[in-house]
Amino acid sequence: MANIKSQKKRILTNAKSAERNKAMKSELRTRVKTAVKSVGADDSDETVRLAVKRLDMAAAKGIIHPNQAARRKSRLMKRINAGA
């Protein structure tokens, strides 16, 4: 354990942000999965739009790299268009 007060604080704030990032990444996987499952359904456009929106938000907040967001969106669209 650190002895320096600022380092103790950093440990706490890093744990908080790690928890937040973990939740966001989990949500990304869920959104993409539901978008792929909803191919051909009435609400497929909406689920795809939400998945893309979450990917963009994660990239903007620095949770994932912008290139990773672009790659994941591209792969999602490929899968959606192949199934439609």
Would you write up a description of this structure?
With 84 residues, the protein is mostly helical. Helix 1 (5-37) runs antiparallel to helix 2. The protein has one domain. It is built from three helices and no strands.
Shape: elongated
Can you give the mean pLDDT?
A: 94
How many strand segments?
0
Cα end-to-end separation: 54 Å
Order of helices and strands: HHH
Overall number of structural domains: 1
Helix-residue proportion? over 70%
Biggest pleated sheet = none
What is the overall number of helices?
3
Features:
mainly alpha; 84 residues; elongated
Give me the secondary-structure topology.
Blueprint: H1 5-37, H2 44-60, H3 66-83
Helix pairs in contact: 1-2, 2-3
Could you write a compact summary of the structure shown?
With 84 residues, this protein is mainly alpha-helical. It has one domain.
